Amino acid sequence: MSKKTRNILLTGLAIALCAALLWLADRSLGNYAMRILNLSAIYIVLSLSLNLVNGFTGLFSLGCAGFMAVGAYVSALLTMSPEVKEMNYFLEPLAPWLQNLTVPFALALVAGGLCAALAGLIVAIPVLRLRDDYLAIATLGFAEIIRVVITNLQGLTNGAQGLKNIPKYSTTWTVWGVAALVVLFMALLTRSSSGRQLKAVRDDEIAAEAMGVNVFKVKVTSFTISSFLAGVGGALLGHMITTIDPKMFTFMLTFNILLIVVLGGNGSITGSVIASIAVTVLMEALRFLDEPLNLLFIKTQGLPGLRMVVFSALLMLVVIFRQRGLMGDRELSWDGLSKAGLLPRQRKGDKP
Known about the structure:
Layout: H1 3-28, H2 31-56, H3 64-79, H4 82-88, H5 96-99, H6 105-127, H7 132-152, H8 154-157, E1 163-164, H9 172-191, H10 193-203, H11 205-210, H12 215-241, E2 243-244, H13 251-264, H14 269-285, E3 293-294, E4 299-300, H15 306-321, H16 334-339
Antiparallel strand pairs: 1-2, 3-4
Helix pairs in contact: 2-9, 2-12, 2-13, 2-14, 3-6, 3-7, 3-12, 6-12, 9-10, 10-12, 13-14
C-alpha cells in the first residue's frame, strides 16, 4: 500500500470515528454538555479566522469581535420571522425592506460572512499600511466603531436592546460541519501557493516583495478571508444562544479568541483546534471556583472571578514554559505519527 493511499484511508477512518463520537454525544449527553461541545466548534472557526491573520500572515489584528457582530446581526435579521421582528422592534420599527425578508439559514450564514468580509475589506485598505502595535490599535478601534454603530442604529439593529428569539439553527451537526469545512479550507490554503505567499510575507516582507509577491494584496486578501470566517463564527454563535446584543462583542471576546490562538500556537491549525476544545471545556470545568467552597483547609463565601485567576495562572505557566504554544507552528500528520512510533512505519517493499 502506498503512503498516499494509507493516509487517505486513515483520514477517512478518523472522520468516521469523529462522526460516530458526535452521534453518540448527541444521544447521550445533556443540553449543558452539548452546549459546551458545540461552543468548542464555534471557537475552532473563530480561532482559525484569527490565526489566518495573526499566525499565517504575521499581522497583529484585534478586530475579530467587530466582524463577528456584523455576521451575527446580518444572519439573525435574515432568518427571523416577521412576527419575531415586530416583537423585538417595539421602540422603533424595523426598516420596511427587512420586515418581511426571510431566507434559509445556509444563505443567511453566507450573507453574514460576506457582509463581514466587506467590512473587513473596507477596514483593510487603509489600515494594513500600518504595522505591529499601530495595526493592532487601529483594528481594535474599528471593532469598537462597529459596536458603537450597531448600538446606535435603532431602526436596523434594535440598538442596545439587541435581538431575541433568534431561530436556533446552530445544531451539533451544523456547527461541527462548518468547523470541519473551515479546517479543510485552512489545510488546503496553507499548502497552496497562496499559503506559501502568506508565510513568505510573515517571515520577511522585503524578501517576499523582491520575489514578486504583491505584499499589500496578500495582506488584504488574508484579512478579508479572516473577516468572512469571523462573520460566519459570529452567526453560528448568535443562532446557538438565540440572543445577541452589542455588549457581547467587546474586546474581551477578541481576547478570548487570541488566547486560544497563542495557547495553541501561531500558525498551527492543529493547535487552534486542540486549544479551542481545551480552553472551552476548562473554562466551564473551573466555574465551581466562583461559588462557595468548603474544602478541608479552604472555605470561601464565593469569589466571583477566582476561576479567571486560576485559569490565567495556568495560562502563564504554559506561556513561560512553552512560549510558542502547545504546537508551535507544527501540524499533526500521519507521517509524523509514524515517525514518532505511534503508527506502523512503512515497510521497505511498500510504494512511497
